[in-house]
Amino acid sequence: MDNAYALHDDLYAPLADRLATMAASRSAAEAIIASAEAWAEVVTSTELQARLHYLRGKVATCGAEGRGSAAAGRLLADAVKLDPSLIGAWNALGECYWQRGELEAARGCFHGALAHRRTCDSLCHLSMLLRVIAGRSPPEEAQSCVLESVALAKDAVRFEPSSQRAWFSMGNAHLSVYKFCTASADELHLASKAFTQATRAGALEAKHGSQLAIINADLAMNHGLTYFLLESIGPAIAAYTQVRVAGAGKREPCN
């Protein structure tokens, strides 16, 4: 189920392949969950019921409505009501609201997750969301959002220093600080260092078959932009070449 869920983010895989993989995984997961639910009728446990709602909600996102699925939202909301310490359910519910454009509700969910336990995933989610909010806010509020975003990204790296996603999030946060706050080359150099670390971490994760390696093309694109802003044209061209390599044969043809 996790592998199918990760395909939501793989913009470089053909849509038909993503949907087919998600549908197959959804069917397999539903069969397993149904067996667990039959057992849960005998062994009544609030934590178990919450977990099943969470899994059902995650399964529901692998349909036509995607992460913004109304059914998924209801199931995930029930999960966190039954067990507020269920971090994965908070994060999935936050993504559900985010997909619907309900950004403040999404922010509340990620804060709900962090209130129970600080994890790399929750920190990265909230850091990214704050950058989105910054892009829709007045200048003073935007600056506050991006400064909080970079602080959260740094925390994520401290929690999981080997995480490609955490380093990628930090690089993007420094780019946002450059855009909204300082226009300083120092932020660009910090972003470049973070993207370099993300590339190294991604190479290690790919050796272990991690689904997080799917962000490589976006990582190369943002690293190329950073080099371009630093007027390092050679490295920028090399990074943009990597975008073509990472996405080669995977993007759907443009009409």
What do you see in this structure?
This protein is an all-alpha fold. 76% of the residues lie in helices and 0% in strands. It contains 12 helices and no strands. It has helices at residues 2-6, 15-40, 46-60, 70-82, 87-99, 103-116, 120-134, 139-159, 164-182, 185-207, 216-229, 233-247. Helix 8 (139-159) packs antiparallel against helix 9 (164-182). It is globular and about 65 Å long. The two termini are 32 Å apart.
Helix content, binned percent: over 70%
Low-confidence stretches: 248-255
The best one-word shape is globular
Instruction: Note the beta-strand portion.
Output: under 5%
Radius of gyration: 19 Å
Contiguous helical run count? 12
- State the secondary-structure class: mainly alpha
**Termini gap:** 32 Å
Number of strands: 0
Mean pLDDT comes to: 86
Major sheet summary line: none
Instruction: Give the topology string: H per helix, E per strand.
Output: HHHHHHHHHHHH
Question: Which key phrases capture this entry?
Answer:
0% strand; globular; 255 residues; mainly alpha; single chain; disordered C terminus; 76% helix
In a few lines, what is going on in this structure?
76% of the residues lie in helices and 0% in strands. The chain has 255 residues and is mostly helical.
Task: Note the topology.
Layout: H1 2-6, H2 15-40, H3 46-60, H4 70-82, H5 87-99, H6 103-116, H7 120-134, H8 139-159, H9 164-182, H10 185-207, H11 216-229, H12 233-247
Helix pairs in contact: 2-3, 3-4, 4-5, 5-6, 5-7, 6-7, 7-8, 7-9, 8-9, 9-10, 9-11, 10-11, 11-12
